[in-house]
Design a protein that fits this description.
Length: about 325
C-alpha cells in the first residue's frame, strides 16, 4: 500500500486491472484501516478515472454473492448519496410507487455513510429483514413487486470498509460504485448523481455496459429530482433539461425535503408519505422521481403518462400495499 500511495501521490492513475486488484485485496483484509483511509482519501482530492471506476466495479462484482431474481425487466432507482442535503428517503419511496404501478423493482442500497438515514436504515426500521437467499428475494418481487438487496450482504468488500466510510463521514468513491454494482443486474436503472462530472463518467460507463439508463442531477446539487431548480436528464439517447413544473407541477423549497434527525424520524416521514399523508411538496418530489423511473422502462409514450401512473399508485394505496405485503413476507 505504501508503494501504491506513493504512486498515486505523484498524480498518477490506476489501470483498470490495478484498481480491481487493490479492491480485491481490501476485501481480503490485506490492509489496515489507516491504509484504506489514505487510499480512499486520494479520490477525494481528484476525480476518479473511468478505468479506475470500472476496475473497482469489476472487483466488487467478481467477489459478489451471485443472485438471479427470476423476474424479467426489473428496475433499480438509486442515488449516489453524498450530496450532503439530508433529504428524506426519496428514491426508496419512489421504488414503492413504481412497484405499485406494476413495475418490478430490485432495490440495491446501504446504510447512510454521509446522511442520517440511508435506504438500509429506513428499510430496517420499517421491519424489513436483510437477506441474500435467492428464493426468498424472488418471492418478494413476485408477490410484493419489490425486494431489497442490502449491499454488505452481497459485497464482502463493502463490509470491510463500512466502518471506515462512516468514520470519514463524507462521500467516497464507494458512493459512486453503489449504483453500478447491483448484484441482480436489473434491466433498467434510474441513477441520481451529485455533480455533472460524475454524470459524465456514469454516462460513459453505462453506455459501455449497454444498459437502459437515465441519469438525473438537480442543478443545485441534489442526487435526485428535487424540484428546487431545473434537473439535467441524461439517457442513452441524449440529454436535456427539465423544469420543476414539467417534472412535478410545482417548485419546492429545500427545507421541505428535510429527512429528520434520526432513523426513527426518517421512517415516520416515509410511512406518512406512502400512506398518502405527505405534504404537497413531498408528494411532488417522490412522484416525479417515480415517474422518471417508469418512463425509463419505455412502457409510457411520454413523461406525463408515467407521472399519471405514479399518482395513481400513490393515491390508490397500491404503493402502500406493496410495502405492507413486503413486510408481511419477512
Amino acid at each position: 500500500m505504501k508503494k501504491l500511495l506513493q504512486y498515486l501521490f505523484e498524480h498518477k492513475t490506476l489501470t483498470r486491472e490495478q484498481a480491481k486488484e487493490v479492491l480485491v485485496q481490501i476485501s481480503q483484509g490485506v490492509y489496515n484501516e489507516h491504509e484504506i483511509t489514505s487510499f480512499v482519501t486520494v479520490f477525494l482530492m481528484r476525480s476518479i478515472t473511468i478505468d479506475e471506476l470500472m476496475g473497482f466495479r469489476d472487483a466488487l462484482l467478481s467477489l459478489a454473492v451471485k443472485i438471479d431474481i427470476d423476474v424479467e425487466n426489473t428496475i433499480d432507482i438509486v442515488g449516489t448519496g453524498g450530496d450532503g442535503k439530508d433529504t428524506f428517503n426519496i428514491s426508496t419511496l419512489a421504488c414503492f410507487i413504481v412497484a405499485g404501478a406494476g413495475q418490478p423493482v430490485v432495490k440495491h442500497g446501504n446504510y447512510g455513510a454521509s446522511s442520517v438515514s440511508g435506504a438500509s436504515n429506513v428499510m430496517e426500521q420499517l421491519g424489513y429483514v436483510f437477506k441474500n437467499e435467492q428464493t426468498a428475494l424472488s418471492k418478494e418481487v413476485k408477490e410484493a413487486g419489490i425486494c431489497f438487496l442490502h449491499a454488505p450482504l452481497f459485497h464482502p468488500a463493502l463490509k470491510t470498509v463500512g466502518p471506515i466510510r462512516r468514520n470519514i463521514g463524507v462521500r467516497t468513491f464507494f458512493n459512486m460504485l453503489g449504483p453500478i454494482v447491483n448484484p441482480a443486474q436489473p434491466k433498467f436503472q434510474l441513477i441520481g448523481v451529485y455533480n455533472l462530472e460524475m454524470a459524465r463518467i456514469y454516462n460513459y460507463v453505462l453506455q459501455g455496459l449497454g444498459k437502459d439508463f437515465t441519469l438525473i442531477h438537480s442543478l443545485d446539487g441534489y442526487d435526485e429530482i428535487a424540484l428546487t431548480t431545473d434537473t439535467k436528464v441524461i439517457t442513452n439517447k441524449g440529454e436535456y433539461i427539465m423544469t420543476p413544473y414539467q417534472l412535478g407541477k410545482k417548485k419546492v423549497f429545500s427545507e421541505e425535503l428535510h429527512g429528520g434527525r434520526t432513523v426513527e424520524e426518517a421512517a415516520s416521514i416515509f410511512k406518512n408519505i406512502i400512506q398518502g399523508k405527505g405534504t404537497w411538496s413531498q408528494n411532488a418530489v417522490v412522484l416525479s422521481n417515480a415517474a422518471m423511473a417508469l418512463f425509463v422502462t419505455g412502457k409510457y409514450e411520454n413523461y406525463d403518462l408515467a407521472f399519471q401512473a405514479a399518482v395513481k399508485s400513490l393515491e390508490s394505496g397500491a404503493a402502500n400495499k406493496c410495502l405492507e405485503k413486503l413486510i408481511s413476507l419477512q
